[in-house]
Amino acid sequence: MNPSGRFRVLIAALLLLLPLASADAQLGRPEGLYYKSWAVIFGINDYLLAPKLKTSVADGKALAETLRKLGFEEVVEVYDKNASSKAMHHILRDVLPRKVGRQDRVVIFFAGHAGITPDRNGQDLGYLVPCDAQANNVSKAVTMDDLKEFSRRVMAKHILFVLDTGISGWEITAPQQLSLEGRGTQEEETDKRAVQVLTAANKGEATAHKDGQSLFLRILATGLQGAADTDKNGWLLASELSSYIKQQVEKATAGKQHPQTARLDGDGDMILIEGKKGTFRAGGEPKTDAERIAAAKELYDQAFTSLQQQRPPQEALNSLDKALEYNPVYGDAYILKSYVLSEYLFNQDDALIAANQAVKYAADNQDSHYTLGLILQKKQHYKEAEQAMNRALAINPVNSDVLLSLGDLYAEDLKDQKKAVEAYTKYLGNGGTESRAKDYVEKAGAAPAKP
Q1: Are 171 and 241 in the same domain?
Q2: pLDDT at position 38, please?
Q3: Domain ends where: 240, 273, 306?
């Protein structure tokens, strides 16, 4: 279906749906992206049986504060002697699986010693060292198998392990490249299961520090403040954060430290920062003119679908505004924007501005003139509305929607019975079925045209 025809179908369908409440469609879903956001911060400096560290607790506290600012309601901080083997296993095996819900997200952060041991198949198995464990003894450790088991038992939709240590050994599930390619809307990402891992370094690599703080943690905090949103769409996903950290850490250490990423389960992506609804799009920021035009079309279609699904109209408007940033002469986007502003947001002044832009950039599209006419009518500029609708009919003389609206304009606003009868008669002659048109023609003493 061409854009003009599809737009008319949308208008007809949406006008029928306007009075309906959308609350039922949200049953079982959070009002936002998640019901609750959890974080557990493990930081250990004061080891009993392993070398002591200096920055792990301070790094954990800094991240805890950053996550609270991002809207994490439940942030549990576990430091030094409280991060014993028994306590860490209890939190992962019992506390979180009992409390975390299906629509929640969970971040698990660990700063401390880690190690690698062979598993029963001779493959590397990474492990985290609690405060009362030996660095080279896995008996009290929290292994990557333990983290995998935790991710199976907890109900959370999205889980992100952030490990400020050099570790690998998650081959229990083959790593997959984290990427935005092929992504859909932010709601689709939220609906998909995701268990993701981000580490500060690869196995055997030392982790760099700067000014008494982990370099990895410093860059992580900067990324969470928005720097990792490299496509500048307002949304920050775990995959974006991972890519940003990997690039920045490798650059800052001259290639001596290599953060690692992996996906343990699912194909979704944790959303760390929620941007404006409707601005989320797949891939990076478009660079060429062709890419910007394609991105604008993608966002236009996203807005169109959003309206069909009765989502909040502001989401559609956000998509259209972003589309027009990419392609400022996109006439169809101006048409749909003027309609959203007029029919949903009741902002006739801004709707008129958008409609005039639609006429400027889509002069051959009947819908641009028709929508302009409807807005002018609402603003009581009746003669100008008549001219706009007649321009739409000059493009398509048998457009039933325009003929009916023009008849209404003559009958109700301009009080021109002759022209009202003429417009309604043409409408009925083209197969129109609205009873008000037939009643008006009959009361005026004119026989309605036969289809």
Answers
A1: yes
A2: 96
A3: 273
Q: Where is the domain boundary, 273, 293, 308?
A: 273
362 in Cβ contact with 334 (< 8 Å)? yes
Report if residue 208 sits inside a domain: yes
Tell me the CATH number at 228: 3.40.50.1460
Report which residue type is found at 114.
Answer: A
pLDDT in tens, 257-309: 999 988 888 888 899 987 765 555 555 577 889 888 988 888 888 888 878 77
39, β-bridge pairs: 75, 107
pLDDT tops 50 at residue 445:
yes
**Residue 179, pLDDT above cutoff 80:** no
What domain range is 331 assigned to? Answer: 3-15+283-443
What local confidence, expressed as pLDDT, does residue 192 receive?
84
Total domains present in the chain: 2
Q: What pLDDT does 339 receive?
A: 93
Relative orientation angle of helices 417-429 and 400-408, to the nearest 10 degrees:
160
Between CA 355 and CA 374 the distance in angstroms is 10
For every residue of the chain, which 3-state class applies, written as one string? CCHHHHHHHHHHHHHHHCCCCCHHHHCCCCCCCCCCEEEEEEECCCCCCCCCCCCHHHHHHHHHHHHHHCCCCEEEEEEHHHCCHHHHHHHHHHHHHHHCCCCCEEEEEEECCEEEEECCCCCEEEEECCCCCCCCCCCCCEEHHHHHHHHHHCCCCEEEEEEEEECCCCCCCCCCCCCCCCCCCHHHHHHCCEEEEEEEECCCCCCCEECCEEHHHHHHHHHHHHHCCCCCCCCEEHHHHHHHHHHHHHHHCCCCCCCEEEEEEECCCCEEECCCCCCCCCCCCCCCHHHHHHHHHHHHHHHHHHHHCCCCHHHHHHHHHHHHHHCCCCHHHHHHHHHHHHHHCCCHHHHHHHHHHHHHHCCCCHHHHHHHHHHHHHCCCHHHHHHHHHHHHHHCCCCHHHHHHHHHHHHHHHCCHHHHHHHHHHHHHCCCCCHHHHHHHHHCCCCCCCC
pLDDT for the residue numbered 117: 81
Q: Kindly report which listed range (1-15, 173-187, 194-208, 345-359) carries the lowest average pLDDT score.
A: 173-187
Clarify whether residues 11 and 47 are in a common domain: no
